[in-house]
Amino acid sequence: MGSKERILRQKEETRSNILIAAREIVKEEGWQGLSMRKIADKIEYTAPIIYEYFSNKEAILQELTCKGFGILTKDLEAAKAESDDPAVQLEGMWLAYWNFALKNKEMYQLMYGVEMTCCAQRNTETDAPYTLIANVIAKLMDQENPKPEVIKQKYFTFFSVIHGLISINIVGNGLSDEINKQILKDAISGIVRYIKE
């Protein structure tokens, strides 16, 4: 490996370490505890080095938001691939969405603005979960070429219920896991029946 490749690899590793350190700090202290100084201390660099990779804290937050949407999209794609039935796909995808949110609470907070300012700027990555789910909703609807605004309304019916339940669990103590899963399954199956009508 030449010196140019080694330098590029080291830069990528440092960039990755900055993002890992930021997530670790947030898990320990919450988003309000994140600062460029703390990231620098955690990876044992000086703060000016961090600024070589990210212009400010918001740039780090934006990068983490994009990574979060990338992970969520992969989870949704995997859930969708488990069945050819759109109703089963929707249930699996929303359960994957739920699992992502509870497994990655801090990331979800950042992506969707739960108890903090949302950092997502619309782009292909942030739109990917909507696009995946909306396409399945369109298949489930019993009509040819459903109007985009109708699909969007159905999507946000799902989203508002599931996001609301997730937010309750992130912000407060929430309900037991068993009750949450039952509410989630009841909501998903009810909305699926509503869409099929």
TrEMBL record:
Record bears the keyword DNA-binding: yes
Entry keywords, A to Z: DNA-binding, Transcription, Transcription regulation
Regions recorded as binding DNA: 35-54
Gene3D superfamilies, alphabetized: Tetracycline Repressor, domain 2
Stretches of the chain forming a coiled coil according to its record: none
InterPro entries according to UniProt: Homeodomain-like_sf, HTH-type_Tx_Regulator, HTH_TetR, MT1864/Rv1816-like_C, Tet_transcr_reg_TetR-rel_C_sf
Database matches in PANTHER family: ACREF/ENVCD OPERON REPRESSOR-RELATED, ACREF_ENVCD OPERON REPRESSOR-RELATED
Protein name listed in UniProt: TetR/AcrR family transcriptional regulator
